[in-house]
Amino acid sequence: MTTPATSAPTEDTAPEADDPTATAEPQAQPTARGGRHRRRATRWRTFWFILWRDIFVTGREIAPFLGQVLVEPFFILFVFGKVLGNLGYTTPGFEQVLLPGVVALNSFLVSLQNTALPLAIDFSYTKEIEDRLLAPIPVVLVAIEKVLFGAIRGLIGSLVMIPIGLLLLDHVSWPLHTLPATLGILSLGGLVGGTVGLTLGTLAPARHISIVFAMTLTPIMFTGATQFPWASLSHIRWFQILCTLNPLTYVSEAMRGLLLPSGGPHSIPLPICIGAIAAGSLVYGFIGIRGFHRRAQD
């Protein structure tokens, strides 16, 4: 007489509780997602900490910073708006055209200089950029932080010029209801200026940065429609086209579109200016970030 054999439980018949994959696999995905979220949060905390450190250093050196960013635009306003006006070499109302252009110029050039020059120094033989490259953030965020910090400096430099211009020039006004839009345009101007500075600072060797500045800053300044409306160049077509290629032109024209009275000189429509500034930021930002990657790997 034989008794029925009792077989040991196999993989198909074993209880699900004994299967280690039944409980381990559902817990792995939340853990991985949580780790990614923590790494992402750490990156952004580090990014904002580096940016705040740069802003804090600027606050401690506010007097040299203001001296650096105010001397040149002050004398542009004084000579072109005050002296030439008193001598009768400019027409009435020129001061109202000049002030928005100079404020836009300060936003753009201060951002450019405060992005390009520190980068050229950081990538010199001292390699001061290495401490930031060792931070737990991607290289692209290091480049973006440089641009954003330069844009913040440009915004501060341009805002300081507004009361100076109102006190220095006669027959100028600054409508308060345009202040939010003005802040937006000046922020965009600082952003595109910072991306241009990122491009110059990464493409030019440190020993040649003074030559690059001498060859680029003056043409940028005088082809950016800062001292004249862009539409007034219709009889000098080749120079008007040249000014069209300068991102600063659209910052200046956007400022005039916000501040000039309705019967004043015609300005480039604001949506076109914003689109051109955004396109310039993307193009120069892409070139600058690629150059930053290349220099960081040297």
Explain this structure:
- This protein is an all-alpha fold.
- 73% of the residues lie in helices and 0% in strands.
- It has ten helices and no strands.
Please give a quick description of this structure:
It is built from 10 helices and no strands. The protein is mainly alpha-helical and 298 residues long.
Write the element-wise H/E pattern from the N-terminal end onward: HHHHHHHHHH
Strand content: under 5%
Tell me the major beta sheet.
none
End-to-end separation in angstroms reads 86 Å
Name the average pLDDT: 82
Class by SSE composition: mainly alpha
DSSP summary, beta strand count: 0
- Broad shape: elongated
Give the SSE map.
Elements: H1 20-60, H2 62-86, H3 94-122, H4 130-133, H5 139-168, H6 179-203, H7 209-222, H8 237-244, H9 247-259, H10 270-297
Helix pairs in contact: 1-5, 2-3, 2-5, 3-5, 3-6, 3-9, 5-6, 5-10, 6-9, 6-10, 9-10
Give the key terms.
single chain, 298 residues, disordered N terminus
